[in-house]
Structure formats: C-alpha cells, structure tokens
C-alpha cells in the first residue's frame, strides 16, 4: 500500500524525489500490582514522524508552499516534544534514554 500511495516531485537536489514519509506509533501499557488488591495502570503513546528528504530542505534554492508547510509542522512537533516529559516516567524510559531517543530520531533535523 505504501508504494501505491507514493508521490514524487522534483527538487533542485533530486529530479525524482520520492518524499517518502514514515509514521510510527509506540504504545506502552504497564500494570503495577503491589501488595494490595488494587492494580495501577500506566499508559503512554509516542508518535514519531520521519519526513523524507527533511535533512536536505536547507539546501533547496526555493521553498514552495508544501515545503513551507512541512517546516512549520517540524517546528510544531518540536514544541510538542518538549511537553512529553511524562514519557520519562514510563518504566524503562528514563530521562537519559528518552533524551537520547529524541536527539537521535527527531531533533537531528537541521531546521529545528
């Protein structure tokens, strides 16, 4: 289905740019049962988005409306990421691991 819905449009860097994007959603559900009859639940959701060719946007000589829209969306995502500190509380997602994940996967874009 992904290849069927794939679109191409030329840029100054690549005449057949695929602009392939990927969206991954990670669901984390945990149950904590202590020495009580009640069980506590912790739930978290992390959406990650990878925009194809996003690292190369700064090299383009002209920016059209779609590219400008993507740049705006990148900045919006970065702003929302700063509010995801609750994910650091999920078991196995300590502060260092979360920060490293964000840095390696999302904040390495030069535009942000």
UniProtKB/TrEMBL annotation:
Kinesin motor domain boundaries: 1-112
Listed GO biological process terms: microtubule-based movement
UniProt cross-references to InterPro entries, sorted A to Z: Kinesin_motor_dom (IPR001752), P-loop_NTPase (IPR027417), RuvA_2-like (IPR010994)
GO molecular function: ATP binding; microtubule binding; microtubule motor activity
Pfam families for this protein: Kinesin
Compositionally biased intervals (Polar residues): 10-20
Chain positions covered by the region annotation Disordered: 1-21
Family (UniProt): Belongs to the TRAFAC class myosin-kinesin ATPase superfamily. Kinesin family.
Protein name: Kinesin-like protein KIF3A
Organism this protein belongs to: Diabrotica virgifera virgifera
């Amino acid at each position: 289905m992904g290849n069927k819905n794939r679109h191409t449009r030329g840029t100054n860097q690549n005449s057949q740019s695929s602009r392939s994007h990927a969206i991954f959603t990670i669901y984390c559900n945990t149950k904590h049962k202590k020495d009580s009859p009640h069980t506590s639940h912790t739930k978290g959701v992390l959406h990650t988005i990878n925009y194809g060719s996003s690292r190369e946007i700064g090299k383009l000589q002209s920016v059209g409306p779609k590219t400008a829209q993507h740049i705006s969306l990148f900045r919006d995502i970065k702003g929302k990421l700063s509010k995801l500190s609750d994910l650091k509380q999920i078991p196995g997602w300590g502060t260092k691991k979360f920060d490293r994940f964000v840095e390696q996967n999302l904040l390495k874009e030069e535009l942000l």
